[in-house]
Design a protein that fits this description.
By secondary structure, the chain is an alpha+beta fold. The protein is 37% helix and 17% strand.
């Protein structure tokens, strides 16, 4: 066939190509065929359609799959995951679910491998802390932005002893760089040793860069077992509080409104909300009890709202510049900054 094509090429310009193909008894499809470079077939889709007409990225689909798999007793294959996603408003076929789960090593029997050696899994079901900043836990929660018709992600780091929010970031995506940045901010404010950090097996938390950072800071990272969210009970309980007290009563028009709301919520939760498990005192009061016992200066209790001269409730001016976190995204490095 190659010889016939070479022969035809040598006579092009002297005779019609169609005549040359006919004389050489070569099929037209064989002459005009050119092998393609790269992977064959259509390019894989990068987004997924929802039943309400909105479109989300495949990263959000993967997060939804991880959420389903994190439920106790769940051990679903890609076919059951597809059915579960469809029942929750996703328009997705089993082939796409299989591809996404295979890429993220979420198929039944898959093992997540890293270059940092074996992960250290939890030894005790419930964390026990004797002082602040001894035991931390972190996780990510979906926050629906109604005006945008899509979900944002809230990353929260809690102190187990006091139940205080020591770090919080809300944005459309949470990557390993964002986790590292938030932990760096926490360590700058609380310079202590011997911290243990508990988290699930999300891709952001098993990332090589994050594990290297934690080793450098001498922070012990422990992972909950797969499909065992009760091992991270403190952060799961906090997410239930957020759902009930922040998300159910309101809807967010845009991401900035949500950021400002959770900035105010962080101040209220730490300084004003009475916590039942702490004996109906605030997280800040629990933290201060330990500081007083160790002869250290207690932290100030911050009032989140006050009545202005015209009777309206507003944030205290002294706190507006220092405590109301406004998050801006650095597009070049995709790292958050608090101002």
């Amino acid at each position: 066939m190659a010889d016939k094509r070479a022969c035809i090429s040598s006579f092009i310009g002297k005779e019609k190509v169609s005549s040359l193909i006919s004389w050489s008894h070569l099929a037209s499809s064989s002459y005009y065929y050119h092998s393609k470079v790269g992977k064959r077939g259509r390019k894989a889709s990068t987004h997924t359609l929802l039943q309400d007409g909105s479109i989300i990225s495949n990263d959000s689909v993967v997060l939804a799959i991880r959420f389903i798999l994190s439920e106790e007793f769940v051990c679903f294959g890609y076919d059951k995951i597809t059915a579960d996603l469809r029942s929750n408003g996703f328009i997705i076929n089993p082939k796409k679910t299989y591809r996404l789960m295979k890429e993220q090593k979420l198929l039944c029997g898959s093992i997540i491998k890293t270059n940092m050696g074996k992960r250290q899994f939890v030894k005790w079901r419930v964390q026990q802390a004797d002082q602040p900043m001894q035991q931390l836990c972190m996780d990510i929660k979906y926050i629906h932005i109604h005006g945008e018709r899509k979900n944002a992600l809230l990353l929260t780091v809690l102190d187990v002893y006091s139940r205080s929010i020591v770090g919080q970031v809300l944005w459309w995506r949470i990557r390993k760089e964002n986790v590292i940045w938030l932990l760096h901010q926490i360590l700058q404010e609380h310079q202590v040793d011997g911290i243990t950090l508990r988290n699930d097996n999300g891709s952001q938390f098993i990332a090589h860069a994050l594990r290297e950072f934690l080793q450098e800071k001498q922070i012990t990272q422990e992972f909950i077992h797969v499909a065992t969210p009760q091992e991270n009970s403190f952060i799961e309980a906090y997410h239930s509080i957020v759902e009930r007290e922040v998300l159910e009563p309101r809807q967010f028009e845009n991401i900035q409104t949500a950021i400002e709301t959770f900035s105010r919520w962080k101040i209220f939760y730490n300084n004003r909300r009475l916590h039942g498990r702490l004996g109906k005192i605030t997280p800040k009061q629990q933290w201060n009890k330990w500081l007083i016992q160790t002869n250290k200066e207690p932290l100030p209790i911050i009032s989140t709202t006050a009545l202005s001269t015209n009777g309206e409730r507003k944030l205290l001016n002294i706190e507006e510049s220092r405590l109301v976190d406004k998050i801006f995204i650095n597009q070049k490095h995709n790292i958050f900054e608090y101002h």
